[in-house]
Each structure stands twice: as structure tokens, then as C-alpha cells.
Amino acid sequence: MSDLDQLTQSLARNLKRWRGERGFTLDVLAARAGVSRGMIIQIEQARTNPSVGTTVKLADALGVSITTLLDYEQGTQVRLVPASQAVRMWSTESGSSTTLLVGTDARGPVELWSWHLMPGEGSASDPHPEGTVELLHVTTGELTLTVDGADHLLPAGTSATFEAHVPHSYRNDGTEPTDLTMAVSIPPVHREGR
């Protein structure tokens, strides 16, 4: 089985599991995530590989980390994630990329990301659920962080935090590659009816 097949199977299994644990019907999850019922069915049947944006929306709606939806080895209290198992979420031909390094669902999901942005490239994010906080630290280069329409310039060595329930994006407007580490804290989601 290829890595992509394994990822598709894990996502199908974990999406069904977490939807069941939350007590969400297909229609409830579709409404919460802004993803069509048909797409959720296809994902749960491992018939499609959703986009990063769709996966993020589903994880946010379920109140779990993306790692939890994609993980095929849940279990021990200490979880080591070798570089070979970090999940490359997107990349471009010129070399930009984001990698989900590790995540946890303790007291609400927390994810740790590594970003590499080539000059002139960036990535936009839809608003996350109310209460979601992002923290980031620029290690090399210069990042333009746009939060709710306002640009913030972060040179290497600068850290930032913001509430991520508004539109936001990350851009490298400089001439050198930009590297940053980001942590995302998502509020827990409770079962429907509680």
C-alpha cells in the first residue's frame, strides 16, 4: 500500500471515528465544516483525497488536530514523530512547503508546523473556529503576516500570536527563503447536545 493509500484509509477511518465520538450526523458535520455531505461520504469511504483546506475544515469542525485525522498509529503516551513521518501538507514547484510536525488533542488540539516559503510565495487560510490561537516564530528571512486585512512584517527572530478566527495569510515578499515554526491551538469540540 502506498503512503497516499495509507493516508486516505487513515483519514477515512479517523473521520468516521471522530464523527461518531462527537455524535455528529453527516449533515451536522457538513454544516459545521462548510463541506458538502457528498464529500464527507467520499472521504469516509476512502474514495477521494480531499484538499488541505477541506481537511483543515473537517478537523476544525470536529475539534481535533489534522494529525489526529491523518494518524494511523494512535496509542502511546509518548509519541515520537521521525522526520520521515511528518506530513507534508502542501508544496510548490519552486520549493515552498508546510509540514505538520506533530499534534495532540489534550485539552483541545494543538499542532506544531514547520513552514518554508520561497520568495514571492504565500498561503492563505480560512478563519478557524472562535478561540483558535496561532503562535509563530520566524527563524530565517522575513514574513508578511496578514490578519483580518492588516499586514504585519516579521523579520527573522520575531515571534507573533493572534486569534485565528478571522481570515489570515502568510507571505514571503522578500528576496530570500523564509522559515518559520508555528503552533496552532484549537478549542475542544463537545458532543452535539451537551
Key phrases:
6-stranded antiparallel β-sheet; 194 residues; 5 helices
Q: Any idea what the shape is? A: globular
Radius of gyration: 17 Å
The count of strands amounts to: 10
Give start-end ranges of low-pLDDT stretches: 74-78
Largest sheet: 6 strands, antiparallel
- Kindly estimate the percentage of residues that lie in beta strands according to DSSP: 25-35%
Description:
This protein is an alpha+beta fold and 194 residues long. Helix content is 27%, strand content 32%. The protein has helices at residues 3-22, 26-33, 37-44, 52-62, 66-70, and strands at 87-91, 97-104, 110-117, 122-125, 133-140, 142-147, 150-155, 159-163, 168-171, 178-185. A hairpin with a 5-residue loop joins strand 2 (97-104) and strand 3 (110-117). Helix 2 (26-33) crosses helix 4 (52-62).
Secondary structure: elements and pairs:
Layout: H1 3-22, H2 26-33, H3 37-44, H4 52-62, H5 66-70, E1 87-91, E2 97-104, E3 110-117, E4 122-125, E5 133-140, E6 142-147, E7 150-155, E8 159-163, E9 168-171, E10 178-185
Antiparallel strand pairs: 1-2, 2-3, 3-10, 4-9, 5-8, 5-10, 6-7, 6-9
Helix pairs in contact: 2-4
Report a brief summary of the structure:
This protein starts with a helix and ends in a 9-residue tail after the last strand. α2 (26-33) crosses α4. It is built from five helices and ten strands; from the N terminus they run αααααββββββββββ.
